[in-house]
Each structure stands twice: as C-alpha cells, then as structure tokens.
Amino acid sequence: MTAGHVTNGQGRFIRIEDPDDPRVAGYRAVKERDLVGREGAFVAEGVVVLEKLFAAGRHSLSSVLIAEQRAAALAPLLAAAPAETPIYVAGQAVMDALTGFHIHRGVLALGRRAPEPDAAELLRSLPEPALVVVMVGLSNHDNVGGVFRNAAAFGAGAVLLDAGCCDPLYRKAIRVSVGAALTTPFVRLEPGTDVVGLVEAAGYTPVALSPAGVVTLSDLPRPVRVAVLLGAEGPGLPPQILARAQGVRIPMAAGFDSLNVAVASGVVLHHLAALTA
To answer: So what's the pLDDT on residue 2?
Structure first.
C-alpha cells in the first residue's frame, strides 16, 4: 500500500501512518477512555461484532480501523459499511501505539449510540408472547455482556438496566455479548425507577430469580408477557423487589445455591423460550 487512499477492488481504504493522526483520535488510548467514557460514542471490537453493527443499523458508524494484514480478507465485509464511512488501515505497530495495547483482532469501529427509546413505550410495543430481561445492579461488564448474549439467543425483545448497572456499550460488554448489545433494544433507567411497577403497568409478570424463590423453575408456567429480573452476584435482588415479584429458583446439587448471573439467565431464558417454541 502507498500513503493516502488505496482501492483494492472491494472498497476504499485510507492508510494511517502516524498514531497521532487526528482522523483516528477517537481510537487513542482505548482502555483509558473506556473508563472515562466517550460522550455518546463507543468502540466495537472484532469481526463478529462489526458484522452485528453493520447488520443491525441501530447505531450510526463513525469510522472503522483495521490492521493492514487483515484488509484484503475483510474487504467483502467492509463493503457493507455505509459509503460515507471512513475505513482506516494501519500497520500493527501504528494500531498498537494508537490504542495503547496490542490489538490482536485487528478490527475496531467507532460508533455513536442511538437515542434510547422510552421504556414504557418499548415494553408495550413488543408483540405477544413477549419476553424481556431486567438487570438490577449488575456492574460487571462480563456479566452484562453475557446476559445480553443470552437475551438475544433466546428471543428476548428488550433489556432494561437500572441505574446501578454498567454501560452495555462499554467495549468489553459489547465483545462478550458477541454484538448482541448492539442489536437488542435496551433502556437504561433513571435512578429511583420502580422496575416492578414499570413492567407490571405494561402487562408483564415480573419473575425474580433468587435461591429463595418459592417456585422451582421447572414448575414455572409461561406468562404471555414476562419480565425476568436479575440481581448482582452476592447481594442479589433487593428485598423490596423480591417481595413484589414471583420468586423463582433453579434447583442445584447440595452445597450450592447459586450460579453466575449470566449462566442463570441462560437457564431461565431457555426454559421460558422453550415453552413457546
């Protein structure tokens, strides 16, 4: 490749020679900016995530940055990017210097998050049978990403996150979700939102996952509209939520009473999805 624009027959690439090039400033010091936020922007990482970002079309795409050695192989995929989207190509050393760590996947994209819908309107808009997930106090990005992946896999129509949850468009959460955080509609709720009241007002039965749940999962009937409530590992769901929702437990071997929250969400969502299959 030579400096400037490079055409390979599949798409137009813009070569970046200098990690201080202002055109790629949004990718600078990725991990540090993960912590402080990007003011409405987000970074997506990896081929599968990029495919989801293109296919969903929910969030706008500002640019793509790929490693030089991956350009030819990714040309067919990148052809799906909007025509106005800059596609930057850089050598591995330049990418690593720019981002601040070794990008072994060699694929990054900078997006801008779409406005979130109104929670009540989103809940009411889902066709029956409707299944939604509500996360309460999940601050671990791996768990949030895992729950989004399961929600997408088992057909949940939306995800709600209370104010104590981490951002689902944090780079690691997107990656762990395998792009599901980019495709599944979600709403981050305002502090103090009554999540049980919110879902009940939209006609959903709130089902609270807890080791102390009265109903065993296998005995849980499938409500036409159901909201699965998940709490953080350790503290679980707050007592005021457990007191107002249908408590459900997953039976386990003696000596264990809980699963990782992402794993537990997969078990419960599979059960509810299977009842409507």
So the answer is: 38
Task: Output the pLDDT for position 101.
Answer: 83
Domain 5-112 has CATH 3.30.1330.30: yes
Range list for CATH 3.30.1330.30 in the chain: 5-112
Burial of 240 (0-12, 13-18, 19+ CB in 10 A): exposed
CA distance 165 to 231: 10
Please compute, for residue 261, the number of CA atoms within 13 A of its CA located in the half-sphere on the CB side.
28
- What CA–CA distance (Å, rounded) separates 178 from 200? 30
What is the third-level CATH fold of 119-274? Alpha/beta knot (3.40.1280)
Looking at residue 3, its pLDDT comes to 41
Along the chain (277 residues), what's the average pLDDT of each consecutive run of 10 residues? Answer: 42 88 91 69 90 87 93 89 91 92 86 94 96 97 97 97 95 94 96 97 96 91 95 90 94 82 95 79
CATH 3.40.1280.10 domain extents, the chain: 119-274
Q: How many CA atoms lie within 13 A of 243 on its CB side?
A: 3
Alpha helical stretches, state H, the chain: 30-36, 47-56, 71-78, 92-99, 119-125, 141-153, 171-176, 180-183, 195-201, 239-242, 261-274
